[in-house]
Amino acid sequence: MRKVVVTGLGALTPVGNNIKDMWESIKAGKCGIDYIKRYDATDYKVKVAGELKDFSPEGVLEKSELRKMDEYIIYAICAANEAINDSGIKIDEEDPYRCGIIFSSGIGGIGTIQKETKRALERGYERVSPYFIPLAIANMGAGNVAIKTGFKGICTSVVTACASGTNAVGDAFRQIRDGYQDVMLCGGSEAAVDELGIGGFTSMHALSTSDDPNRASIPFDKERTGFVMGEGAGVLVLEEYEHAKARGAHIYCEIAGYGATCDANHITAPLEDGSGAAKCMELAIKDANLSPEDITYINAHGTSTRLNDKGETLAIKKAFADCYDKVLVSSTKSMTGHMLGASGAVEAIITALSVANDVVPPTVNYKVPDEECDLDIVPNEARKVTVNAAISNSLGFGGHNATVLFKKLDA
């Protein structure tokens, strides 16, 4: 099996529109959740979200292109552009058929669906935009990124709800490790902070209705009441080690393990005993030829819902057994909100940066301990520790579980 390394990163998040700004915000414990500005939420139950701030695609996309793209596609292209530039990959120096893309979105163009449905009801269904379908379907993030980058290898879109971004990273890792590709661009994007997206999650009582931005997304806190919607994109460039070394690429760390399971239990609720997620972590650790004792940090799925945080706590205890209280745990959704199909990609990036920089991010705004979530959750302030290996968890509606493992490079 071939060694796989991380050579490029790109991010567009509620706490920063690029990798540098995002990472500085994450280390500082900056919360990117605020009152919704995209629409008037005065008469709605949910009033806060993790929206992008001062974002502009200028310099990456032309105005003529923007009309043919949903926001989630725009986010995907902008984050991918940063990751490619960061990696130094030049497609005209590569075999394009050995460079692939696996890119996810949990929902796809929901903003376009809302807009065009309104137009159809007002003007007739045959008057919707001719770009409606390619703006709305969830694979067009991957498709448009391929068009922009010239990558001609495998190009697929993973749709596993909130596990999508992590599955995309894990599947891309295997493509390289098993010899099918040399370079993979992977990640996810989401743009669901609109009335339809927020309304759908509100009606199923999944979102926090707190009107205090600092007490809305509070993973593992006893007063948690639901998650906060976020938006944005995360992209990683993965590369076969010898290929990266030959071109003198900067290497952040190694990606060494991947686990994927399904609870096969319920359309939205995780298994109460956490067994499905536990097995997923066990598989990722085994895949990397490591043991639980080798893991310094877990970037938890940590949504701030009652069921998830309790279930994930039990999962960590099952997977780590006697050493569960020695592993550091945090949920960066406390800062970004839940970015749905982009969350796993952004959290994989944060986990990779944790390994590269020996910093464990905090769970911010944590105040009230929950005896059912008795983990070392690194509350409120980052910790400077040696991070030899770390995992990132994602758990999606439909019972999808995914874990990726990053470690320091053994050159």
Automatic annotation (TrEMBL):
GO terms for biological process: fatty acid biosynthetic process. SMART domains: PKS_KS. Residues 1-408 form the Ketosynthase family 3 (KS3) domain. The active site is at 162 (for beta-ketoacyl synthase activity). Its EC number is 2.3.1.179. GO terms for cellular component: cytosol. It is an enzyme of class 2 (transferase). GO terms for molecular function: 3-oxoacyl-[acyl-carrier-protein] synthase activity. Pathway: Lipid metabolism; fatty acid biosynthesis. It catalyses: a fatty acyl-[ACP] + malonyl-[ACP] + H(+) = a 3-oxoacyl-[ACP] + holo-[ACP] + CO2; (9Z)-hexadecenoyl-[ACP] + malonyl-[ACP] + H(+) = 3-oxo-(11Z)-octadecenoyl-[ACP] + holo-[ACP] + CO2. The keyword Lipid biosynthesis applies. Pfam families: ketoacyl-synt, Ketoacyl-synt_C. Keywords: Acyltransferase, Fatty acid biosynthesis, Fatty acid metabolism, Lipid biosynthesis, Lipid metabolism, Transferase. InterPro entries: 3-oxoacyl-ACP_synth-2, Beta-ketoacyl_synthase, Ketoacyl_synth_AS, Ketoacyl_synth_C, Ketoacyl_synth_N, PKS_Beta-ketoAc_synthase_dom, Thiolase-like. Belongs to the thiolase-like superfamily. Beta-ketoacyl-ACP synthases family. Involved in the type II fatty acid elongation cycle. Catalyzes the elongation of a wide range of acyl-ACP by the addition of two carbons from malonyl-ACP to an acyl acceptor. Can efficiently catalyze the conversion of palmitoleoyl-ACP (cis-hexadec-9-enoyl-ACP) to cis-vaccenoyl-ACP (cis-octadec-11-enoyl-ACP), an essential step in the thermal regulation of fatty acid composition. This is 3-oxoacyl-[acyl-carrier-protein] synthase 2. It comes from Eubacterium uniforme.
